[in-house]
Amino acid sequence: MNFVKENGRTIPVADKVFALSGRAKEAIAKYGKDNVVNATTGALFDDDGNLVVLSSVIEAIRSLSPADYAEYAPIAGPPAFKEGVKKALFGNFTPSGFVNVSATPGGTGSITSTVLNFTERGDEVLTHDWCWANYKNICSQHGRKLKTFRFFDEDGKFDAADMEKQLGELAAKQDQVVIIINTPAHNPTGYALSLEDWDNVIRIVNNAKCRVILFLDVAYIDYAGEEDEVRAFMPKLEALEDHVFLIYGYSASKTLTAYGMRCGAIVCVARTEEDAEEFRRATEFSARSTWSNCNRSAETVLGKIYADPELRAKVDAERVGYRDMLLERGRVFEETLTANGVKCVPFTAGFFVTVACDDPDAVCAKLEEQNIFCLALAKGIRISIASISKEKCVKCAEAIAALLK
Ligand code: PLP
Question: Which of 21, 130, 139, 217 to mutate to test the pocket of ligand 1 (most atoms within 8 A of CB)?
Fold first, then answer.
């Protein structure tokens, strides 16, 4: 009957990732989990194939009172949550300027809020060509378009020149451009912008002929490496000029392994109190008129963890153990691939590794014949090393290399 209005969106028949992971689960039921590599899921699993859940976080959840679950949360989140998000996001760094935090359902909500509040209908949002597919969906859902710059040049280096070119094209059409940069532990490649890349980004946005909203999606920051090192770029952003507005998208999904609790925040570092206040008003209004308030119990847990040094130390220590497990998987995957004569797209750390290839669908179909399940992207294959053991990383890298050589 076509009751649904597409409104410029392309609504797929089925979600590709969920369909793929459904087939992987069927294969596991048929052949046993040791004989299947399910590298499809964007969540962290231990080497036995069980979802990683931080027991210290669960302990904190169990300590909540019934009202912590039942009561509405303030739209922007309770004060302790906002303080907790600042600590979780910035670590030991204290940005100068006016920081404002507004709760969102996961990091996804922070992207939606940025698109809704900082672009106009019909605008184009700029991001790197390797990117989380949901950026495009969020833009189309709200009548905006996604434009991309080439993430890597021929030498596998961050392509600052193309970023500058594409931003220049947009600046000729729009008085304000939202740029989304996902780093560190970028999805899907695992790339982290180097400090030199950051110098280039800062130069480019400072020289832009339009206002720029620099949105940094740091959803995976706590799995990218040592806490201070992965935040070393933050002080550099103090050099942003007045026409650049800095926003971070924070996600507790990965940091607390609490994907289902839908907890995140949009955070600005504004130059003036007025800009921070405008940000607060807009993000609270858009929250109220979309998802309303967020999950109070998750916000309370986050607030508790970051207000209690002992509890925080427990959570951090537990996560660091898993982070190091993930870093080791990435190292092993990349080494095996390279030893077999194939390179991955520049990788530093993260939940995913990507291998560029022609006809990714055909390569993934061949892998599936060997019970290896990976996601075919437009220009390559995404392997979720977060969801497979070190041994399976080796098996998967060898199988991909054998097909691509
Ligand atoms: N950003 C990127 C790049 C992601 O891959 C994800 C989740 O997969 C998110 C943000 C947001 O995650 P969530 O909404 O679960 O916090």
Answer: 217
